[in-house]
Amino acid sequence: MPDYKVYYFNVKALGEPLRFLLSYGNLPFDDVRITREEWPALKPTMPMGQMPVLEVDGKRVHQSLAMCRYVAKQINLAGDNPLEALQIDAIVDTINDFRLKIAIVAYEPDDIVKEKKIITLNNEVIPFYLTKLNVIAKENNGHLVLGKPTWADVYFAGILDYLNYLTKTNLLENFPNLQEVVNKVLDHENIKAYIAKRPITEV
């Protein structure tokens, strides 16, 4: 079995889907949580000077979706054929598009501009994406694609706390089918074990 290390800050954010997938598949990994003080010295050693980074047998790779997809293939959550893989990727990319639209607003430095963007986000963007995904979850028996567990489910469950943090709300309050997707992941015994031992963080 390869030797895995995950390098990220002591937050959930973009690192948690990767940690979730490794845990879901029962793949042991070193959860290396970097402090803000340690980061300047470590940054030049990372492929693109950013994290999260996955190290596999000493080889460090970046890009969170690529890392998640790699792990998903190791634990048979990436589809049984190229068409299934494509369908899963389409859903994951949709979730990531949603995340980016939220992040652009959350990290807007101009308060006046941000206030206007929040109105559009809350009234248009969030309802559009969550309504679509909620219907998809219903059609797929509490999963996001193919009617079975895939890494799309795990990715969504892993990124949700970060999205709730950025929007300062419970995004799934009125979307029970999506909540069912998340609950199925959180009820997995390996995810329960990981959550029980992970550090408590706000983000």
From TrEMBL:
Entry's EC annotation: 2.5.1.18
The keyword Ion transport appears for this protein: no
Superkingdom to which the source organism belongs: Eukaryota
Pfam families listed in its UniProt record: GST_C_3, GST_N
MF (Gene Ontology): glutathione peroxidase activity; glutathione transferase activity
Reactions this protein catalyses: RX + glutathione = an S-substituted glutathione + a halide anion + H(+)
Enzyme class, spelled out: transferase
Record's keyword annotation contains Transferase: yes
Entries under InterPro entries matching the protein: Glutathione-S-Trfase_C-like, Glutathione-S-Trfase_C_sf, Glutathione_S-Trfase, Glutathione_S-Trfase_N, GST_C, GST_superfamily, Thioredoxin-like_sf
CDD domains: GST_C_Sigma_like, GST_N_Sigma_like
Keywords assigned: Transferase
GO BP, sorted A to Z: glutathione metabolic process
Assembly, per entry: Homodimer.
Family of this protein: Belongs to the GST superfamily. Sigma family.
PANTHER family associated with the record: GLUTATHIONE S-TRANSFERASE, HEMATOPOIETIC PROSTAGLANDIN D SYNTHASE
Protein's name according to its UniProt entry: glutathione transferase
